[in-house]
Amino acid sequence: MTGPPQDLARGAVGPARVVAFGASTVAPAGAVVGGLVLVVSYAGFAAPLVVLIAFAASLCCASSVAEFARRLPSAGSLYTYTSRGLGQTGGFLTGWMMIFAYALYVPAGIALTSAYAAQLIAGTTGRAVPAWALFLVILAAVALVAYLGISTSTAVDLLLVAGEVAVIAALAVTVLVKTSPSQYSAAVLSPASSPHGQLADLTRALIYGIVAFAGFEAAATLGEEARHSRRAIPAATFGVVAVTGLFYLLVTASETFGAGRPGLPGLLQQRNPLGYLTSHYWSPSALWVIQLVVVLTGLGFVVAACNVTIRVLFAMGRERGIPGGFARLSSRHTPVAAIGCVAALALLLGLPLTYLTGGALAFSYLAGSAGLAVVLIYLALNIGTIRAFRTEFRAEFRPGRHLLVPAAAAVMFAFPLWGILHPHRLTDLLPFLAVGWL
Question: In this model, does residue 386 exceed pLDDT 90?
Fold first, then answer.
């Protein structure tokens, strides 16, 4: 009689699915609806500058992920990496913050998806279905997909991610083509173009810009399940950041140039800015297409974010950083106890907020609360990279890749901390929940 599985499904995921998994965790289309709207609301006409800074910081951070992934393929990803770079305490705290961030991302993604699914159903069938009821349906479906295994999960991600980017990119190109060239301006790269002409506008916006890229490192959690992981994980990490960054620049350019500096406040006052652009530049009858895209990207994101969370829980349980029960696997080589934990947290955190405030606001509250945790995780990773390659991997040390690039990333990720420490709105206090978690 054979005992329960001890390892995740080795070699179950090919390179294309690794890329799709990472891209789905970033959820570019969902970020356009959620995080990038907040970037534009804080940075105004300077939103493309904020996206460019977050893009550069993410590329530098991707280099640190790649350097570790080539040497330490592990389901624990950044938890494992910082454990080697900063010691067991630093690694545990990084894993602890990853659990916090992704445990919020899962219900946040379900909340936003349920809100758009409710709109889509009402618009196409005329029947009103409450977002909280759809929240329960989506959560059950995501837990089932996670239980069935990573092959099923990444197949779903691969089907969803390409279509979502293509549709919204096509809308952005349409906006830019139909916009008068006189509205194009290099002022989008000037800090003075922010609403108050202050650096604080950019630092507040940057926290949401970084959150929009958050998840690019998710492919690293497939280190034990991807084929040729020492090559596939670094390539996927860089590929996800590059494609996402170019996509975000295209979208923010279309919003800022299309609305113009005087028109941006009006655009932001729309209940659904992306839907408004769709109706204005395509046709009101095409609005359901964007709603469908957001629903699909939300599903892909939640599936991927759930899988990241359960693999970090699995790795920490396997190493007894948290109770060992989290490392228990089902007959399908999936961390069944971790799946149950993530589903329970999503239910407790997301369902009441969705019921009381609606899916869109629930997303804003939950995703905003994760912002500081994401910054701290990336800071720890880059500092850990410098230390690891000055100690354990000293023979492989290269000043550019192992000192200058991670140091530049650390500086850029420290930049939005200034905005967090100077709250402007009541919701700006949400990231401080991460301090309580620590």
Answer: yes
